[in-house]
Structure formats: structure tokens, C-alpha cells
């Protein structure tokens, strides 16, 4: 089922394919306003992108008012990296699982990180199939 920009099934949810296609087809920007708009689109799916804050760091200055536009190698790498991250598995978040026989929940693992540029956290669940992002 598609709902509010996501495809949802009994196992979890992922970004809506048509929205990801639109992001992937966005041409390289020529203005700071275009970078800002792209970051707003990508921000909607940041929960699916590992290390989003660090990945977008070269592009974030363009969100400031009256920012002079300059496009160099670091900006292009960040642009390409963000698009790649949206299409590289795992771009899927799982619903919490439990053992059907014993009705016990599988353990959760909370990972956190912080730097001078941002903070992040990830909730995962250890299942018999491996570590799954929640």
C-alpha cells in the first residue's frame, strides 16, 4: 500500500518509488535555491539514509539566505552520494518483530553518535535473520 510518500507492507516501509525516481532525476543544481529545495525533498527520507547529516554537510550552507552559489568537487560528491544512498539497500525500515511461539520480543539495540556537525541515532532489532533497522 502506498501512503504519505511511503510504500508499506506487512514487514515494514520504504520510500515511495515514484518519489525516489523524481529525486534521482533532479539535475545538478545551478542555484543555491535549487540545492535548498533538493535538501528539503531528501530530508523527508532522511530516516532511510545512514549518516544523512554528515553526507549533506557540503550542501547545507546553501540553505542560508543570500548564499553565493559555488559548485565544486565536494558539493558534487555530496550530491551524488545522497542520490546513491536513497537507492542503495537497505532503504527499508522494519516493524518490530517477536517470536510467535514464545511471544517474546527480540532485543533492541540503540546506537547513537554525535559530532560538531550533528547528532544521530538508530534503533535496530536483533532477529534470527540478523540486525534489522526499525
TrEMBL record:
Gene3D superfamilies: 3.30.70.270. It holds the Pfam family RT_RNaseH_2. SUPFAM superfamilies: DNA/RNA polymerases. InterPro entries: DNA/RNA_pol_sf, Rev_trsase/Diguanyl_cyclase, RT_RNaseH_2, Viral_Replic_Matur_Polypro. Residues 71-134 form the Reverse transcriptase/retrotransposon-derived protein RNase H-like domain. This is Reverse transcriptase/retrotransposon-derived protein RNase H-like domain-containing protein.
Amino acid at each position: 500500500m502506498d501512503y504519505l510518500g511511503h510504500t508499506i507492507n506487512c514487514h515494514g516501509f520504504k520510500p515511495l518509488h515514484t518519489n525516489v525516481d523524481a529525486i534521482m532525476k533532479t539535475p545538478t543544481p545551478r542555484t543555491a535555491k535549487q540545492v535548498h529545495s533538493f535538501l528539503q525533498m531528501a530530508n523527508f527520507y532522511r530516516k532511510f539514509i545512514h549518516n544523512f547529516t554528515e553526507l549533506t554537510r557540503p550542501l547545507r550552507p546553501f540553505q542560508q539566505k543570500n548564499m553565493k552559489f559555488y559548485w565544486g568537487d565536494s558539493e558534487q560528491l555530496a550530491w551524488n552520494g545522497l542520490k546513491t544512498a536513497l537507492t542503495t539497500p537497505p532503504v527499508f525500515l522494519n516493524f518490530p518483530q517477536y517470536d510467535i511461539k514464545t511471544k517474546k520480543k527480540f532485543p533492541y539495540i540503540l546506537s547513537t553518535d554525535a559530532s560538531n556537525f550533528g547528532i544521530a541515532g538508530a534503533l535496530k532489532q536483533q532477529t534470527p535473520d540478523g540486525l534489522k533497522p526499525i
